[in-house]
Design goal:
binds zinc ion, single chain, Quinone Oxidoreductase, Chain A, domain 1, about 350 residues, seven-stranded mixed sheet, six-stranded parallel sheet, Rossmann fold, alpha/beta, 10 helices, globular, binds nicotinamide-adenine-dinucleotide
Length: about 350
């Protein structure tokens, strides 16, 4: 079968022939319907090096996948061949306190996971291939009626990651509140939709690109603000001077972290999702009182079920552009150059 493999750090992936996987006991092979292209893959190609992660290439890219059950290993029950499924991407040890409640991203026994702090497309072979081997059937989540794999794939990361980041701040997002989304790309545009579908917050979207702000408006943003310039003043004004109850930074650069802290309200959450390599200096008078800063990594398995429900009911609908496996590099180049709207999905 074909697979788009990252062969080494600081390189672009290559489309190569590899053997088709066969499932061992408890495992599942999924025929890939779609694999989303994530900006994290660009970090894997260009920013990471030996020692950045507890694993190394080579492996097949694609950590945002959905498709159909193709083959079941011995002992797997409750799934049938041909059934449409999403793949839950973070693969923990399965037995620690966190994995037991479906929070694999924060697995406390990484040495017991297939690879520490990774999954398919992140240290192990992922979904940018004709088939993906899922090492434990618990990661295979049946799709609800009304959701096909191409629409479901982006929900497993571009949907699940913002969903988790928003859900943990639901208590701040009552009527009268404001949420700011910085970076309206693959994750951010779904984040805007999730805020609109699950909270009463007024949503302000920030990006450097006019196209992205246009997409934010289509996704229901109440106000769009170009990054830089007088963004801080515009957002402060829009909140009656108070600031935002939640800032979601889907970029994570110095400039966006600074912006986030400058527009956050007293008693608020500044949640960093983007892996832009920036830092936020914090001292007593430099940030709002009781502004909590957190990074978040992906989301839980129960949250994936909730996101898929939002998708099946049409409340959250990622904007996707399809590419073949042989066009995957084009998709990544367009992401790098800022000429993609929403999410690119690779359809093998
Ligand atoms: P993307 O390329 O699709 O979107 C990024 C958006 O940010 C683009 O619209 C871009 O124009 C905008 N942007 C860039 N610089 C900006 C600035 N200074 N101000 C405002 N907007 C700016 O990327 P994506 O796939 O949505 O991923 C976003 C980030 O989240 C990446 O760093 C990725 O690695 C990270 N990520 C984190 C997790 C996690 O679990 N924490 C999961 C997935 C992705
Ligand atoms: Zn990702």
């Amino acid at each position: 079968m074909r697979a788009l493999r990252l062969q080494e750090w600081k390189s672009e992936p290559e489309l190569v022939e590899v053997p088709e996987p066969t499932p061992g006991p408890g495992q599942v092979v999924v025929r890939v319907g779609a694999a989303g292209a994530c900006h994290s893959d660009l970090h894997l190609m260009h920013d990471f090096e030996a020692g950045s992660m507890p694993w190394n290439p080579p492996f097949t890219l694609g950590h945002e996948n959905a498709g159909w059950v193709h083959a079941l290993g011995d002992g797997v029950t409750g799934l049938t061949v041909g059934q449409p499924v999403a793949v839950y991407g973070p693969w923990g040890c399965g037995v620690c306190a966190r994995c037991r409640v479906g929070v694999d991203p924060y697995c406390e026994n990484p040495a017991g996971a297939p690879v520490p702090s990774g999954g398919g497309g992140l240290g192990l072979d992922g979904g940018m291939a004709d088939y993906e081997l899922v090492p434990d059937a618990r990661h295979v989540v049946p799709l609800p009626d009304g959701l096909d794999p191409v629409d479901a794939a982006p929900l497993t990361d571009a949907g699940l990651t913002p969903y988790h980041a928003i859900r943990r701040s639901w208590h701040r997002l009552a009527p009268g509140s404001t949420a700011v989304v910085i970076g309206v790309g693959g994750l951010g545009h779904v984040g805007v939709q999730i805020l609109k579908a699950t909270t009463a917050a007024r949503v302000v979207a920030v990006d450097t690109r006019a196209d992205a702000l246009q997409l934010a408006e289509e996704c229901g943003a109440d106000l769009t603000v170009p990054s830089g310039g007088d963004a801080v003043e515009q957002i402060r004004r829009a909140t009656g001077g108070r600031g935002a109850d939640l800032v979601l930074d889907f970029v994570g650069a110095d400039a966006t972290l600074r912006l986030g802290a400058a527009v956050a309200r007293t008693v608020s959450d500044l949640t960093i999702v983007g892996i832009g390599g920036g830092t936020l200096p914090v001292s007593f008078f430099s940030v709002p009182y009781e502004m909590s800063v957190a990074t978040t990594y992906w989301g839980s398995r129960p949250e994936l079920v909730e996101v898929l429900d939002l998708g099946a009911r049409g409340l959250v609908r990622p904007k996707t552009t399809r590419f073949g496996l042989d066009e995957a590099l084009t998709a990544y180049h367009r992401m790098r150059d800022g000429t993609l709207e929403g999410r690119a999905v690779i359809v093998p």
